[in-house]
Design goal:
The protein contains 11 helices and no strands. The chain has 201 residues and is an all-alpha fold. The chain is elongated.
């Protein structure tokens, strides 16, 4: 049966599903945000750790909601919660809008039901959180002046400065993309073994 405009509209149950898995995604996301306070390397590679451990909620959500804007709504919910907690920046807004747009394009091109399409969508989506450490490279002097005024410990500042190389920038951007793919395969394996048996997907 050909897809109709009406069939592409998200329904109440689907919006609830997106909300539930967005909450799970954010909980894992925020955990690694907190862990980033222990050492700069944890913060710089926070997007990669998030990508590795959030493949399950993302892939289940995309399997259950095979319609446009599901990923965009997940990104918007995450951004709004960060805004409410005071962690939101213009850079995160830009990276989330860009990553969600690319993710939606991937899903649309693969008709929303392709594992590889959703995997690539997740890889792009995972780049959204790079907006948190990215100011280290975009606004280096202003960034360090700002966090110094916020009372960040001197040893933490020294560690960030030592890590803020061009090579580390490329690693920070590549790691979430690659670990998102790994996270997708982990989700696929667990979904096949457990979630399908439980009737979740």
């Amino acid at each position: 049966m050909p897809e109709t405009k009406q069939s592409r509209i998200l329904k109440g149950k689907e919006l609830i599903t997106i909300g539930i898995f967005s909450a799970i995604y954010f909980a894992i996301n925020f955990l690694f945000m907190l862990l980033g306070a222990f050492h700069p390397i944890m913060w710089i590679f926070m997007p990669a750790f998030i990508a590795l451990f959030t493949g399950i909620p993302f892939m289940i959500m995309t399997a259950k909601v095979q319609k446009p804007f599901a990923v965009a709504i997940m990104g918007a919910i995450t951004a709004l919660i960060y805004f409410a907690t005071g962690q939101f920046t213009m850079v995160i807004l830009i990276t989330f809008v860009t990553s969600c747009t690319l993710a939606e394009i991937c899903r649309r091109a693969t008709k929303y039901n392709s594992f590889w399409g959703n995997t690539l969508a997740f890889a792009f989506f995972s780049l959204g959180m790079t907006g948190s450490p990215l100011p280290v490279w975009l606004f280096r002097d202003d960034f360090f002046a700002q966090i110094r005024d916020q009372g960040i410990p001197a040893d933490y500042l020294v560690s960030i400065e030592s890590l803020a190389s061009t090579e580390m920038l490329f690693a920070m951007l590549a790691a979430p993309f690659l670990l998102a793919i790994i996270g997708s395969f982990i989700a696929k394996a667990l979904t096949k073994k457990h979630f399908k048996k439980a009737g979740i997907v």
